[in-house]
């Protein structure tokens, strides 16, 4: 009896080992160098090499990364079940429509300026076996992986390309109210207020503005535009004192630093009772910021799709560099310059950079 029990146990163990081997077995890609858990992911390795070298300047966190990340959002958010319920096409989400119907969607006011990165990305899509919908989201995730402190984002493939453009007014504008922004995200994919903070703020953290104030293209939103750090959450809560260029631009409010532009929507989200405490919670909390953005980005990039119908190719994404700085106040500023908005938690005490008041150098446009 004991021998039969032992034999049964060995048989079960062997079966488990076989099953586990089947689950973890990797395929060798056609290039003979890379392996993947799913053969569909092999097609991404040459795309990765190409865009890192020829789109992202050898793996930099620069202007093309900023714009590619912006494009992931502008494409994916173009979906509205509320519009669809009226019997009109409500958009397909992350379906590449912003590039496939460039002549239509880039004329939407909220998409001002995205035509530049769309045109830069087109040759890469043309020479690789990848849909436009997949490429836009893949390029955004790879670009972010070049930024120190960024999370390693999830990537999926298998999206079908759009057959018609997204409707206008599905992309939030910097002059929209917090009510309108939260409602738009809830409609698009059931995003919570906390997810909106993570997604919108993280999208601007490694970004720069070309068209809010056209007299100063490439002006960053914080003092560390090439790092995925918490400075954005700190500096949006500092008292605004100046305009870096010309005043009176729609969607812009005063910034605390020369050479730094502040969007009206960011300023209001940082101070609204529904979002202020979540916003402040990212100050000096790199790990939470990374985790929150990773989750929100994953949710955004599959809008309009059943994730179970897609292939997870996250393993292709490189591991980003470690954070390159600690949370701090820019030189000349301190806790006394914070416009405290979270009523339940005091603003963290942070060190102040030494030296004269910070002046941020604008990011030069490509």
From TrEMBL:
Disulfide bonds: 29-42, 41-313, 61-147, 277-342
One biological process term in Gene Ontology: hydrogen peroxide catabolic process
Keyword Oxidoreductase found: yes
Region annotation (Disordered) ranges: 327-366
Coiled-coil ranges per UniProt: none
Primary enzyme class: oxidoreductase
Family annotation (PROSITE patterns): PEROXIDASE_2 (PS00436), PEROXIDASE_4 (PS50873)
Active site: 74
Annotated site location: Transition state stabilizer: 70
Cofactor, how bound (note): Binds 2 calcium ions per subunit.
Signal peptide boundaries: 1-21
Keyword presence, Transmembrane: no
MF-aspect GO terms: heme binding; metal ion binding; peroxidase activity
Keywords: Calcium, Disulfide bond, Glycoprotein, Heme, Iron, Lignin degradation, Metal-binding, Oxidoreductase, Peroxidase, Signal
EC assignment: 1.11.1.-
Record-linked SUPFAM superfamilies: Heme-dependent peroxidases
Name recorded for this polypeptide: Peroxidase
Organism of this sequence: Trametes polyzona
């Amino acid at each position: 009896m004991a021998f039969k029990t032992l034999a049964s146990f060995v048989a079960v163990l062997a079966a488990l080992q076989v099953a586990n081997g089947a689950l973890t077995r990797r395929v060798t890609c056609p290039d003979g160098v890379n392996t993947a858990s799913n053969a569909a992911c092999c097609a991404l390795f040459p795309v990765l090499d190409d865009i890192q070298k020829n789109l992202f300047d050898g793996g930099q966190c620069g202007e093309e990364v900023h714009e590619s990340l912006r494009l992931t959002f502008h494409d994916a958010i173009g979906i509205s079940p509320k519009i669809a319920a009226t019997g009109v096409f409500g958009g397909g989400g992350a379906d590449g429509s912003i590039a496939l119907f460039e002549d239509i969607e880039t004329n939407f006011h909220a998409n001002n300026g995205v035509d530049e990165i769309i045109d830069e990305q087109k040759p890469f899509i043309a020479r690789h076996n990848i849909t436009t919908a997949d490429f836009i989201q893949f390029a955004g995730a790879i670009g972010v992986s070049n930024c120190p402190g960024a999370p390693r984002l999830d990537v999926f493939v298998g999206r079908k390309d759009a057959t018609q453009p997204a409707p206008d007014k599905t992309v939030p504008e910097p002059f929209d109210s917090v009510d309108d922004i939260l409602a738009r995200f809830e409609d698009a994919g059931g995003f919570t207020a906390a997810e909106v903070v993570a997604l919108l703020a993280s999208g601007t953290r490694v970004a720069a503005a070309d068209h809010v104030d056209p007299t100063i293209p490439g002006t960053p939103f914080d003092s560390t535009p090439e790092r995925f750090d918490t400075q954005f959450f700190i500096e949006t809560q500092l008292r605004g004192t100046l305009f870096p260029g010309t005043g009176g631009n729609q969607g812009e409010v005063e910034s605390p630093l020369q050479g730094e532009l502040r969007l009206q929507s960011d300023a209001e989200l940082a101070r609204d009772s529904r979002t202020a405490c979540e916003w402040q919670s990212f100050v000096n909390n790199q790990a939470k910021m990374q985790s929150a953005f990773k989750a929100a980005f994953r949710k955004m990039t599959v809008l309009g799709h059943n994730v179970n119908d897609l292939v997870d190719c996250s393993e292709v994404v490189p591991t980003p560099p470690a954070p390159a700085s600690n949370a701090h106040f820019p030189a000349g500023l301190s806790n006394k310059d914070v416009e405290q908005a979270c009523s339940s938690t005091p603003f963290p005490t942070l060190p102040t950079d030494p030296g004269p008041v910070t002046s941020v150098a604008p990011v030069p446009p490509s």
